[in-house]
Amino acid sequence: MSNAIRLITGLGNPGNEYDRTRHNAGFDFIDELASTLNVQLKSDKKYFGDVGKTTINNQDVWLLKPTTFMNRSGQAVQALAQFYKIELSEILVAHDELDLPPGTAKLKTGGGHGGHNGLRDIIARMSNQRDFHRLRIGIGHPGSSDQVVSFVLGKPTSKEKTLIQNAISEAVQNRDTIVSHWHKAMTHMNQFKAE
User: Fold this and answer.
1) How many domains does the chain have?
2) Chain centroid to CA 5: how far?
3) What is the tens place of the pLDDT at every residue in 105-125?
4) What's the longest Cα–Cα distance across the chain?
5) How many CA atoms lie within 13 A of 188 on its CB side?
6) Position 194 in a domain
7) Beta strands in 67-168 (DSSP E)
8) For the domain that residue 148 is a member of, what is the CATH number?
9) Catalytic site residue 141?
10) Contacts of 158 (CB under 8 A, 6+ apart)
């Protein structure tokens, strides 16, 4: 089994009202990655999302933005992974992370869903297996759990937006290492902090 990443999916909600909200940081990562690599993402109903194929570091990689809502993200990931026989260990999920400040984007493998509905659905649809890779894009926390929903569905402040964008850009620039040299990428990204 290859250790290289073969599927990169970014989580978010479809529709203009959710565009550039904190919860759509995963979509923003895929958009920048696709733009940098000149990949056209095209709607594919079979995979419940916008899909593109590219080559990163001599490895074929699928890019996926689910067009279901966040709490059904696993439907798209499961469909594409099953069709192309992509192992759990070859999947990277980019998502917003409340527990990290804006300006950080950390890599990890496995773990729970931490209350994130997109991760929760992916885990459920992958037979409760959790050993896929994650790119956790920090968005900060509102400070109170009863404010979380409106916070994640809101747009970041101008300063937060710049920090989040800088962290996303750092991850995009390190795509070769992320795809082919996971532990080296983890060491770099987990020390990075945008100013």
Assistant:
1) 1
2) 13
3) 999 999 999 889 999 999 999
4) 46
5) 15
6) no
7) 91-97, 105-109, 133-138
8) 3.40.50.1470
9) no
10) none
Q: What is the pLDDT of residue 80?
A: 97
pTM of model > 0.90: yes
Structural domain contains residue 128: yes
Residue with tokens 């690599």: 37
Task: Decide if pLDDT at 190 tops 90.
Answer: yes
Tokens 């194929």 identify what position?
53
- Per-residue pLDDT of 20-51, as tens digits, reads 999 999 999 999 999 999 999 999 999 999 99
Is it the case that residue 1 has pLDDT exceeding 50?
no
Structure tokens at 58: 């001599």
1 in a structural domain: no
Distance between CA atoms of 174 and 189, rounded to whole angstroms?
Answer: 8
CA–CA dist 113, 119 (Å, integer): 5
Which residue is listed with tokens 């089994």? 1
- Tell me the Cα Rg of the chain: 15
Query: What does 107-163 look like in DSSP terms, one character per residue?
Result: EEE----TT-HHHHHHHHHTTT---SEEEEEE----SSGGGHHHHHTSPPPHHHHHH
Of 23, 95, 116, 133, which is the active-site residue? 23
Domain-located, residue 2: no
The whole domain housing 42 covers 7-189
